[in-house]
Write a structure and sequence with these properties.
There is one protein chain. This protein has 488 residues and is mostly helical. It has one domain (2-485). The chain contains 19 helices and 2 strands. The radius of gyration is 22 Å and the shape is globular. The model has no long low-confidence stretch (mean pLDDT 88). This is Cation:proton antiporter. Pfam families: Proton_antipo_M. One of its GO terms (molecular function) is NADH dehydrogenase (ubiquinone) activity. It is a multi-pass membrane protein.
C-alpha cells in the first residue's frame, strides 16, 4: 500500500512528458490516467484514517532517506488538486484547445502533490521550484506584451522567495544538522525556544507567506488577471494553497517551540490581508481582478485559523481551504464559460443574462453563498470552526474583522451577480448568429454539468463536516515525529 504513495507525484510527471511528445488524444489519456490516480489517492486517504502511510524511497529510513508522508490532511489536499486539474483538462478538451499548456499543468500538479506529500524541507523546496518554472511558462503562453510584464513581478518576487527559502534551509541544516521534518521537529523541541534561532523560523514564515499571498500579495492580481480562465482556475486553486499547507505542516511539526511568537505575527498579517482583500473586492469590478482579491481575502481568513494553533483552528483552516480550492477554480471556469457562450466583451457591464441562462445563474448564486460561507455550503463548517477558535484564542475585534470581510466579499460577488444576470442589456454582448449559439449549446451544457458536480462535492464537505472534523482531529500533529522516526 505504501508504494502507491508515489502515484500522485509520478503519474503527472510521466503524463507531462508523454503529452509533450505526443499531442494526439492527450486530453483523453491525461484525464483517464489522472482518474486512476484519483481513485488510488482516495483509497490511500481512507487507509490513512487508521494509520498514516509512509514511503521511504530506496529503502532508507528517516532521517537519512527521502520519505513521503500521507495522512488524511495531505491526501485530501492531493485529492482536491487532482479533481481540479481533471475538470480544467476536461474544459480544455471541450474547447478543442491544441497547445502546450497541458504538460505544464501536469508538471504543476506533480509539484503540488509532491509538496503535500514530502517529509523533508529540501524536497519541499524542489517541489516549489517545479511549480514556479511551470507556472512561469503558463503565464507567458500567448507571447502578449502584457503577459511578459505580469510575469516579471511574478518571477522576481518568487525568485526572491526561493533564495530566502534556500538560505533558510542552509542555516537550518547548519544549526540542526538535518532536513527531515520529523527529525527537525524532534531537535527543535529538545532545544526549546532559542531567541537567536527565531530568525530562521521567520525566514520560512516570509517564504510561505509570499507563496500564499499573505500580506505580500502584489504578484497575484498582476499575474492571475492575464491568464486564460482555465489556467486561472489551476492557479487560483493550487498555488497559494501549497503555501498554506507548508505553513500548517512546518508550524505544527517543526516550529512548535515558536508557536507563541508566530501566533501574533500570523494574526496581524492575516488581519491586514483580509482588509486588503476587502478593499480590492470593493474597488475592482473587472471579474478576474475581483476574483484575485477574493483569493487574497480567503487567504487572510485561513491564516486567522492557523494563528490559533489549536486543533479546532487548524481543522477549520484545512476544511475551509479544501472548499476554497474547489470554489475558486469553478468561479474562474464559470466566468470563462459565460464569456464564451454569450460572446461578452467585458463582464463588468450590465448584461441581463438571467432569462438566457437560468441554470447558470442558480449555480453562480450557490458559489456566491459558498464564498460567504453561508450555512449548507462547503465553506460554512470550516469558517465556523475558524471563528470559534479565533474567539477562544484572540481578542474579539479580530473575529469581527473576519466576519466583516466575509460579508464584504459576498456583497461584492452578489453585486456582480445582480449586475450580470439582472442588469439591463447594454450591448456588451457580441451578437451571435443562431448557428453560432447552437454550436455552443452542447459544450456549454457539458461544462455546466461538470461544474454542477463540483458544486455537489463542495456541499458534501458541509454534509459530512462532523465525521471529517473528527478524523482530522484524530491526526494528532504531535505524533508526526513518532510516526516518521519509528516508521509509523
Amino acid at each position: 500500500m505504501s508504494n502507491l504513495l508515489i502515484v500522485p507525484v509520478l503519474i503527472p510527471i510521466l503524463l507531462g512528458v508523454f503529452t509533450y511528445l505526443k499531442d494526439k488524444r492527450i486530453y483523453t489519456i491525461a484525464i483517464a490516467t489522472l482518474s486512476i490516480s484519483l481513485i488510488t489517492t482516495i483509497v490511500l486517504a481512507y487507509s490513512s484514517i487508521k494509520k498514516p502511510i509512509i514511503l521511504s524511497l530506496g529503502g532508507y529510513s528517516a532521517p537519512y532517506g527521502i520519505q513521503l508522508y500521507g495522512d488524511l490532511m495531505s491526501l485530501l489536499f492531493v485529492i482536491v488538486s487532482i479533481v481540479v486539474v481533471i475538470v480544467v483538462l476536461y474544459f480544455q478538451y471541450i474547447n478543442q484547445l491544441k497547445d502546450l499548456t497541458v504538460p505544464f499543468i501536469l508538471f504543476i500538479l506533480a509539484g503540488v502533490n509532491g509538496s503535500f506529500l514530502t517529509a523533508d524541507i529540501f524536497n519541499l523546496f524542489v517541489m516549489f521550484e517545479v511549480m514556479l518554472l511551470s507556472s512561469f511558462i503558463l503565464i507567458v503562453v500567448g507571447k502578449k506584451k502584457y503577459q511578459f510584464k505580469a510575469s516579471i513581478t511574478y518571477v522576481v518576487l518568487n525568485l526572491i522567495g526561493s533564495w530566502v527559502f534556500l538560505i533558510g534551509i542552509g542555516i537550518l541544516y547548519r544549526v540542526y544538522g538535518t532536513l527531515n521534518f520529523a527529525h527537525l521537529g524532534m531537535r527543535m523541541q529538545e532545544a526549546g525556544f532559542v531567541p537567536e534561532h527565531a530568525v530562521i523560523v521567520l525566514l520560512f514564515v516570509v517564504v510561505f507567506s509570499l507563496k500564499s499571498a499573505l500580506l505580500v500579495f502584489i504578484w497575484l492580481p498582476r499575474s492571475y488577471s492575464v491568464l486564460s480562465y482555465e489556467i486561472g482556475a489551476v492557479f487560483a486553486a493550487l498555488l497559494t494553497k501549497v503555501g498554506v499547507y507548508a505553513m500548517i505542516r512546518t508550524t505544527t511539526v517543526i516550529f512548535v517551540p515558536y508557536q507563541s511568537m508566530l501566533s501574533s505575527i500570523i494574526l496581524y498579517m492575516a488581519t491586514a490581508t483580509v482588509i486588503i482583500g476587502m478593499l480590492g473586492v470593493i474597488k475592482y469590478k473587472e471579474i478576474k481582478l475581483m476574483f484575485c482579491y477574493q483569493i487574497i481575502l480567503s487567504i487572510g481568513i485561513i491564516y486567522y485559523g492557523i494563528s490559533t494553533f489549536s486543533q479546532k483552528g487548524i481543522d477549520g483552516a484545512v476544511m475551509y481551504t479544501l472548499n476554497d480550492m474547489l470554489v475558486k477554480s469553478c468561479l474562474f471556469l464559470l466566468a470563462g464559460l459565460i464569456v464564451k457562450r454569450f460572446g461578452l466583451i467585458n463582464m463588468k457591464y450590465k448584461q441581463g443574462l438571467f432569462y438566457h441562462a437560468k441554470a447558470t445563474a442558480i449555480i453562480v448564486l450557490f458559489f456566491v453563498f459558498a464564498i460567504g460561507g453561508m450555512p449548507f455550503t462547503g465553506g460554512f463548517p470550516g469558517k465556523l470552526l475558524i471563528l470559534q477558535a479565533g474567539m477562544d484564542a484572540h481578542p474579539l475585534g479580530y473575529a469581527i474583522v473576519m466576519v466583516i470581510g466575509t460579508f464584504v466579499g459576498m456583497f461584492a460577488m452578489m453585486r456582480m451577480f445582480i449586475t450580470l444576470f439582472f442588469g439591463e442589456e447594454d450591448g456588451s454582448c457580441v451578437q451571435l448568429t443562431d448557428a453560432q449559439r447552437h454550436a455552443l449549446n452542447k459544450p456549454y451544457s457539458k461544462k455546466l454539468t461538470v461544474i454542477g458536480v463540483v458544486l455537489v462535492i463542495t456541499c458534501m464537505i458541509s454534509i459530512f463536516a462532523a465525521p471529517l472534523q473528527q478524523h482530522l482531529s484524530a491526526i494528532h500533529y504531535d505524533r508526526y515525529i513518532e510516526n516518521v522516526m519509528m516508521g509509523g
